[in-house]
Amino acid sequence: MTPFELVEPRSLREAAGLLSSGEPSVRPIAGGTAVMLMMKMGVFRPARLVSLRAVEKRYSDIIAGRDGELRIGAMVTLSALERSPVVRGQAPVITRALRTLANVRVRNVATVGGHLAHADPHLDLPPVLIALEARASIVDPTGGRTLPLEQLYAGYLETTLGSNELIAEVIVPPQVPRRAAYLKCTTRSADDWPALGVAVVVDADGTLVRDARIVISAATDTPTRLTAAESVLRGARMDDAVLRRAGDAAADEADVIADAHGSAAYKKHLVRVYVARAVRQALADQ
After folding, report:
1. Tally of CB atoms within 10 A around 22
2. DSSP letter, residue 160
3. Of 172, 203, 230, which residue is a domain's last?
4. Looking at the structure, do residues 199 and 106 belong to the same domain, yes or no?
5. In the chain, which end has fewer C-beta atoms inside a 10 angstrom radius, N or C?
6. Residue 45 sits in the same domain as residue 117
7. Stretch (H or E) spanning 113
8. Looking at the structure, do residues 213 and 154 belong to the same domain, yes or no?
9. How many CB atoms lie within 10 A of CB 244?
């Protein structure tokens, strides 16, 4: 690795200020699981890294509001998120999704904010959180903003964050009483990068679906909602025919990409099959 300067601000707003130079080789680092790998491979050579490890402790907290809404600090590690009884009670689909996210060594270090901001389409949490209608609270040197998480992603490894903006926390509406599922198809081990990830959240009365949100990842450049498939489900009573129509609508709608995990044709078939499976699993969630 080439030499670089490491600075350690004491607040998230101070960290955002240190990113305001406009120099593209100045980047934030939280857990470092992605940044350090890119540095070791020589694809990223920073002049300065702004460490977030010493920022306010409240950004390492998980807090549940009285209405069940979760506020997850950006510096919460993925393992802390996985083990949290608050998360397990209010949004159990997050807990289940984390069990096959990378491996325990990565989860012990990687942070929620870094995971989301890295914007690799193969990541597991973005589709789950988007399906749950999560929002990101963002700070800059003088203020901040909040945006729906589905508006965070602009392309492959690209976000809509400004160069001096940082994710402060993620606000997640309660899953319960909605039902939810996350399925991923991997070509190797269960914790490998997926060829496809599918998150489904349904508001249902028995087998009657009042509303649905379907988000896929890995097969597309960014986490993508499948609104046509959602429309098939909305107001329908689930049976094999409806699930086939939803799967077909999802496959027709998804703008899939080929990569090392599968061809576009293969991934389109996965979308058709896994959307129906994820809906069925969500309806079985109790």
Report:
1. 8
2. S
3. 172
4. no
5. C
6. no
7. helix 112-118
8. no
9. 13
Give exposure, 82-120, as e/b (b: 16+ Cβ within 10 Å).
bebeebeebbebbbbbbebbbeeebbebbbbbbbbbbbe
pLDDT at residue number 210: 97
Residue 286's pLDDT is: 62
In the chain, which residues have pLDDT < 70? 1, 286
How does pLDDT run across 128-145, given as a tens digit for each residue?
999 999 999 999 999 999
Q: Specify the residue for token string 């129906």.
A: 276
Q: Is 219 exposed, middle or buried (0-12, 13-18, 19+ CB in 10 A)?
A: buried
pLDDT score, position 3: 85
**Domain with 229 in it:** 179-284
Q: Which of 132, 147, 172 is the last residue of a domain?
A: 172
Whether 72 and 99 map to the same domain: the answer is: yes
Which helix (H) or strand (E) segment holds residue 217: the answer is strand 208-217
* Closest-CA residue to 286 (of 132, 181, 198): 181
The residues, ordered by sequence, that sit 6+ positions from 64 with a Cβ below 8 Å of its Cβ are 70, 71, 86, 89, 90
Burial class, 124, CB count within 10 angstroms (exposed 0-12 / middle 13-18 / buried 19+): buried
pLDDT of residue 115: 97
* Cα–Cα distance for residue pair 219/263, rounded to 1 Å: 9
Q: 32: how many CB neighbours lie within 10 A of its CB?
A: 18
Query: What's the CATH number where 34 sits?
Result: 3.30.43.10
pTM comes to: 0.96
Residues 34 and 94 occupy one common structural domain: no
Cβ atoms of 78 and 129 within 8 Å: the answer is no
pLDDT at 191: 79
CA distance 223 to 155: 9
